[in-house]
Amino acid sequence: MSDAYVLVLNASYEPLQRVSLRHAIKMLVREVAVIEEEAGGTYGPFPRPKVLRLVRYVVAKWMHRRSHLCTKSAIKARDGMCAYCGGKAETVDHIIPRSRGGMLTWDNAVAACTRCNHRKANRTPAEAGMTLLVVPRRPSLGDVA
After folding, report:
1. So where are the chain's domains?
2. Domain 65-128, second-level architecture
3. Average pLDDT by stretches of 10, the chain with 145 residues
């Protein structure tokens, strides 16, 4: 799995994030990054990168607020149970489905078990006849993550 991801450094050599190999190649094509370390082998016409460095420095204030990022694991941690039946939270469900423009936001996503997620499918909870047991909201600073 570590080979599938490429470390991205800021222009100042600070680590920023890991990206997929495909994303890393796109960064090389756009010439926004250069290869700092190769993993060996090739990926198309490019040497397979292990570490990239951005050509220009980017301000990364967002790195210090990671606990407030809306991610699937953060949604499951916030809810702690299926928002529809109270069972084990195995996945994340979009209240307004993604196919209808729903995004992964604190107010539009809830934890769900696989069964309830499939039952709701591509509908809103009201259309599926399902009731939410939790109110989706952005966690406050006092909430434990």
Report:
1. 2-59, 65-128
2. Orthogonal Bundle (1.10)
3. 78 91 94 93 88 91 61 90 95 94 93 96 95 88 49
